[in-house]
Amino acid sequence: MKIGLTFLARFISLIFHPAVLQGIFLLAPWWNTLTLYRFFPSLLLGAVVFPLTISGIYLQQIGIKNWFVVSQENRLIPFLITISCLILLAGFWWQDIPALSGRIIWVVFINISAVLITLKEKISLHILGLISATGMLMELNPLFGGIGLILLIPIAFSRYYLKSHSIKQLIYGGIIGLIWVILYYLFRDFLPFIHKPYFYPTI
Question: Measured between alpha carbons, how far is 158 from 154 in angstroms, rounded to an integer?
């Protein structure tokens, strides 16, 4: 029973990794458009595969074999790797799809805030990513809010069960995610590159 729960918790933690959640936020506005097929491979590599792979290699080099439980002290380098990959990705698409680059920069700001908070207090990046991504995507479809609420329980349970986070750290992650959702809706009309991707070509 315990082995089964551990496997399930690790599986949930992996498929809803913060890098995956940020990738969903970035590509969602272009779903079912030809533009998606233009940038999807680079987005998959730059926002998900490269950050996870390089961070994994780094963690192995410093002797961390369990990627599901990373201490507060060892989070800084993976953060910087992720932010660097995102900045490069934003620069790559700035000329062709500025709306995508704008959303990537917004995600960079979220990651920077998480870095600064992590220097003082460990928080759940899974919960932060879930709340912020699904909350901001509610402008496309309110169902994203319901999806976020449904996923909140299994993701929070998996992180707590794996002893990755305390309940306080899970709550902190949710609060920071909610703050970013509020900021998004407060300032989105001043950030057309982020809020209105349909202003740009979708072919």
Answer: 6
